[in-house]
Amino acid sequence: MPQRAILCYLESDGSLALEAIERLRTIAPSVVLPMPTVAQVLETVEHTPGSAGLLPIEDSYDGESLAVYDRLVFESRNAYIRDEVVVSDSLDAFAQGEAAAEAAHTAVASPRGIEQCFRFVQEHGLRVRYVESAVEACRVVSTAVDEGLIALAPTRMAERFGLATIAAGIEDLPDLKTRFIVVSREVAPPTGDDKTTLIVTPAVDRSGTLVDLLGAFGENDVNMVSLISRPLRASVGTHCFQITCEGHVSDQPLQATIKRLWDKGARIKVLGSFPAWTGDQVMTPFDALPTSSVGPAEAPVDQRRLLAPPVG
């Protein structure tokens, strides 16, 4: 049964966050509070019993958000990931009225929004005005005296700010997705289909360290789904590894894995355990394999080119 909670989210995520809130599984918001920064969301979660936070952690365009992860990893002591949700991220162009489309001369959007819709901006010969977020873009356009401003923002923003949609689905790469996480002071109870994120810091950082650590997961038949390496300023030359794997932290195989990592001298932080999201997933927007990849069946000339790239 979902847990009742005060839910904080980033105001800059706007309608996308509100859509994610509607799809949460382990939290039932009693109050929804927009906040300006990731730090403020996490601070509220850590110091306010009965609260939770919704944060964007990955999208098809930029990949995983290390800025959000770093706050969780290095600054939070009592905040755990307890849920994840993936929502579609389509962008439209909004103006004060449909007639304003003819007078459009400047696109107002966040840097990310401009980059995602660069082709649309170029094709319409628009100048660019950067703002902090899609919410701010819509606010600027809705209150502007100049009708030639258009906002580039998620679909549901139009109704909120009383704007007219003059073009839909304008992102360069279609079918973009954003993954949000929910953090609270507790992990979610096990469901039988869960994921866990661990932060593993080895005792020493030398050749073969990562292979040695990953062996603990293989020994206990724990499948990994994500691996991120982060260098540590506190110990130059040392890395910590963020590993997301299948299973709940209370499951025996994962408990055995953690104990095996301790045997190897590693320090462990549990970043969260949460039900695996079974709907749409965040994937690269490109259908092809990485360009210029070379496999064992490729022509010898291609293999030689891979082994001896140009040196300048």
What count of structural domains?
Answer: 3
Cα shape: globular
Residue share in helix: 25-40%
- What kind of sheet is the major sheet? 6 strands, mixed
CATH architecture of the largest domain: 3-Layer(aba) Sandwich
The helix count comes to 10
Order of helices and strands: EHEHEEHEEEHHEHEHEEEHEEHEH
The name of the CATH topology of the largest domain is: D-Maltodextrin-Binding Protein, domain 2
Specify the structural class.
alpha/beta
What is the radius of gyration computed over CA atoms, rounded to a whole number of angstroms?
Answer: 23 Å
Unreliable segments of 5+ consecutive residues = none
Q: Report the count of strand segments.
A: 15
Mean pLDDT: 91
Distance between the termini: 61 Å
Query: What is the assigned CATH homologous superfamily of the largest domain?
Result: Periplasmic binding protein-like II
Q: What's the CATH C level of the largest domain?
A: Alpha Beta
DSSP strand content: 25-35%
What is the topological layout?
Blueprint: E1 3-10, H1 14-22, E2 27-35, H2 38-47, E3 51-59, E4 63-64, H3 66-74, E5 80-88, E6 91-95, E7 106-109, H4 111-116, H5 118-123, E8 127-130, H6 134-143, E9 149-154, H7 157-161, E10 164-167, E11 177-184, E12 194-201, H8 209-219, E13 224-231, E14 239-246, H9 252-263, E15 267-275, H10 300-307
Parallel strand pairs: 1-2, 1-3, 7-8, 7-9
Antiparallel strand pairs: 3-4, 3-11, 5-11, 6-9, 6-10, 12-14, 12-15, 13-14
